[in-house]
Amino acid sequence: MGKSYCREAISIDIHTLSVQIPAVEWPYNAATPPLYQTSAYTYHSVDEVDRLLSGDGRGYTYSRGGNPTCDALAYVLAELERAEAAVIAASGMGAILAGILALSPTAAPVIVAREIYGGTPGLVRQVLQPLGYTLYWLNTHNEAEAKATLQAHPGVLVVESISNPLGRVSPLDTLIAMAHQMGSHVLVDNTFATPYHAQPLRFGADLVAHSVTKYIGGHSDLIAGALVGSKELTQRAAQILNVMGITPDPFAAWLALRGARTLALRMERASQNALSLSTALSGHFALDRVYYPGLSSHPDHEVAQRLLERGYGAIVGLRLHGGRRAVERFVQSLKLVPFLPSLGDVMTTVSQPVVASHRELTEAEQRAVEIDDSVVRVSVGIENVQDLIEDFQQALESANSR
């Protein structure tokens, strides 16, 4: 766990890099990474186990503290993020918790970007505040406001590369530099962008978190998280994950390894589909607004053009006329797209943030970032985009006609 992996051949394209088999030795010349579904490992020598548990030697003793399949996934993610090292957690929330604790082992301010997954401030409130940590909100789109907050409350800044659910893109290049200047560490949740669209370590992030459950896994069949960064910080996070018992099951890591090999291909298609869908739905009579950073109408379009690579991600936000009743009719009218309170699948799905991803926020906090019961989050998949457009158009017409 927390081992150093990053390959020197940094010119390799991500489409090639993502399908490469981890450069580690497997027994019996396996063509793909084997699944080491074991809780422990046998030895014939007490001294050998003693050396391993003392950190003097290479090997595994107990899968909570290390597993070859989990390490193979860590290797792949470190390669994709161009990082020194990575460590795998039992979930994305476990990764964020370990990341905050690794960056600030003692109580400190946790400065959270206004537009962020609702579970992140929920984690701070429910777990970290009782330990003495304090939560502060940060407007990442107002330089003067951001500077004042960071200056007054240096600690750990947590921000997303592409925000959940309206696709806000913070100016990470200037924001991270400002945070460091003001004495804060920075943890970037890169779940929505994935390494295909952004590699926040390039902008100076201290750690990058992923909900591997989403696009890296890509098939709604696993729960896992990851942290990538320097060898020192990921080793510190690995110790926290081990002691707290929030390390992943090897089978989840194996599924994520399988998914990661098609990450670039899936994100390329899903991103193209998202741009086409958001363009087609813009101006629809049933919609008040379409949110997608690839649209010139999006407030962060210029920032997204500057910071994101190879497209703008696969999340589209829709604001429907008619509020929750219209949303309910819309969801029930969709024929190809299911309601799923998650995202990142190969199939397109929809969710409503106020009842799922952002229910832990107060109504005032939701309103501050333009989230209410009229907003739908669309996780665009890899289907034929014309099929998606026709399904969304007919569902929107049905939602608005009753």
TrEMBL record:
Gene Ontology biological-process annotations: transsulfuration
Cofactor(s) the record lists: pyridoxal 5'-phosphate
Catalytically driven reaction(s): L-homocysteine + H2O = 2-oxobutanoate + hydrogen sulfide + NH4(+) + H(+); L-methionine + H2O = methanethiol + 2-oxobutanoate + NH4(+)
GO MF annotations, alphabetized: cysteine-S-conjugate beta-lyase activity; homocysteine desulfhydrase activity; methionine gamma-lyase activity; pyridoxal phosphate binding
InterPro entries for the chain: Cys/Met-Metab_PyrdxlP-dep_enz, PyrdxlP-dep_Trfase, PyrdxlP-dep_Trfase_major, PyrdxlP-dep_Trfase_small
CDD domains membership: CGS_like
Major enzyme class: lyase
Highest rank taxon of the organism: Bacteria
Post-translational modification N6-(pyridoxal phosphate)lysine, affected residues: K214
Signal peptide bounds: none
Entry keyword set: Lyase, Pyridoxal phosphate
Gene Ontology, cellular component aspect: cytoplasm
Enzyme Commission numbers on file: 4.4.1.2
Family, per entry: Belongs to the trans-sulfuration enzymes family.
Record's protein name: homocysteine desulfhydrase
Organism expressing this protein natively: Sulfobacillus acidophilus
Taxon lineage: Bacteria, Bacillati, Bacillota, Clostridia, Eubacteriales
